[in-house]
Amino acid sequence: MSDKSSYWRANLRLVALCLVIWFVVSYLFGIILVDELNSIRIGGYKLGFWFAQQGSIYTFVALIFFYAYRMGKLDREHDVHEDK
User: Fold this and answer.
1) Exposed / middle / buried, residue 51 (Cβ in 10 Å: 0-12, 13-18, 19+)
2) Alpha-carbon span 39 to 75, nearest angstrom
3) How far apart are the first and last CA of the chain?
4) What does pTM read for this prediction?
5) Euclidean distance between CA atoms 5 and 1, whole angstroms
6) CA 48/CA 33 separation, integer angstroms
7) pLDDT tens per residue, the chain (84 residues)?
8) CB neighbours of 73 closer than 8 A, spacing ≥ 6?
9) Domain locations along the chain
């Protein structure tokens, strides 16, 4: 197996992980499981409502930083990083 294929396989795993997390938070927590999550209150707000309104956005921003950090690490591991 070539180094390029292992790099892209790791890259695709990372993208898939981020997409699964985003799907779970935005679609499942914000739409499908909203009634079950609304039985939990945080700061006076129903948890399902919070995920639908703000939680998915916060998760998306956190995923951007996580992805950038992990891709930087992955690039260095496979020696495809940019020199500064």
Assistant:
1) buried
2) 43
3) 29
4) 0.81
5) 7
6) 7
7) 568 889 999 999 999 999 999 999 989 998 899 999 999 998 888 998 888 888 889 999 999 999 999 999 999 998 887 776
8) none
9) 3-77
